[in-house]
Amino acid sequence: MSILYRSDAARGAAWARYFAENAPDLDFRVWPDAGNLEDVEYLIAWQPPREFLAALPRLKVLFSSGAGIDHLDFAAVPPHVPIVRMVEPGIINGMVEYVSLAVLALHRDFFDYVEAKAARSWNPLEVPPASARTIGVMGMGVLGCAVLERLATYGFQLRGWNRSLRPIDGVESFAGAEQLQPFLAGCDVLVCLLPLTTATQGILNRDLLGMLPRGAALINVGRGPHLVDADLLEALDSGRLSRAILDVTDPEPLPADHPLWAHPRVFVTPHVASMTQPDTAAPILLENLRRHRRGEPLQGLIDRFRGY
Ligand code: NAP
Fold this sequence. Notes:
The chain has 10 helices and 12 strands. It is elongated and about 65 Å long. The relative contact order is 0.14. Bound molecules: NADP nicotinamide-adenine-dinucleotide phosphate.
């Protein structure tokens, strides 16, 4: 069985080490030492070029090396080749950490204290209990549910919005377009953890932001194109929104002259909320390879029609 890793070069060595130690019978290659492309059966990649995929006649499965798959050109992947996304504890833990940090920073007014410190101003603000804030998560998938579970431990009021209704103890669940407005109306902090699809592109727009309570904050950890930047800036300047924390932007990297950098109430991080960790991802991928060999269903299989 030949597997080729063609993704983040810095982490390629860790992947190769894991396979050498735990599956020495498998022919695991790291790009650019790809050997004969004609016998590659499994590809682990982020953005494989179209002509490169065409050079893999025996390809059986394409594994995305990251959680999302919106970067992939589905049309370039032969229809008989399943596409599998990365679902692994390292990505989940990273996202839970990041969103907890962002929510707590907003809840405890950390950004106000950063400004106060710069002005050498000793200005204690009210400290409401977590139970006085409602956090809403859009997208109750693997990551959204893990985030809600952790946020519950702090005592926040929680609500979630999803395509299909997903009841979770302690979370007020909403589903579909018709329940978007009632969902948003109660969110003090809105977290976007949706996949990027034709249905969700531009979803964080003027209409949606206008349904949030005045002074709400936004955390976007989904994808940059979920957000209409101009509508966010307008909502911040009008006071409709208090702050935004953006881990994803459009484009990435965000150009130095982009207005999001300059806005005092926008905090940007360079798409680091969570990343695939080879130590935890390689065992999951190996098990998935073995499932495929045994003819069992792959975990994390993408529905090309749905787009996630
Ligand atoms: P997932 O398990 O596939 O979950 C996606 C969820 O979104 C599902 O529950 C789905 O509902 C819901 N959904 C999809 N389209 C919708 C729509 N039009 N309206 C309402 N809900 C919709 O994905 P995940 O693993 O949680 O990851 C979510 C996203 O996080 C990824 O796609 C990626 O964009 C982003 N991400 C970002 C980073 C980062 O570092 N910033 C890292 C990893 C992932 P159904 O259950 O009804 O289908």
